[in-house]
Amino acid sequence: MKIPLNARVQCVDGPGGRVVQVIVNPIARKMTHVVVEEKDLPSVERLVPMRSIVETGDKLIYLDCSRQELGQMSPLIESEFLWAEIPEFRESHSYLLHPYVVPGRLKTKQESLPPGELDIRRGARVQATDGKVGWVDEFVVIPTNGEITHLLLREGHQWGCKEVTIPISAIERIEERTVHLKLDKRGIQALPSVPVQRSWR
Question: What is the pTM of this model?
Answer without folding.
Answer: 0.70
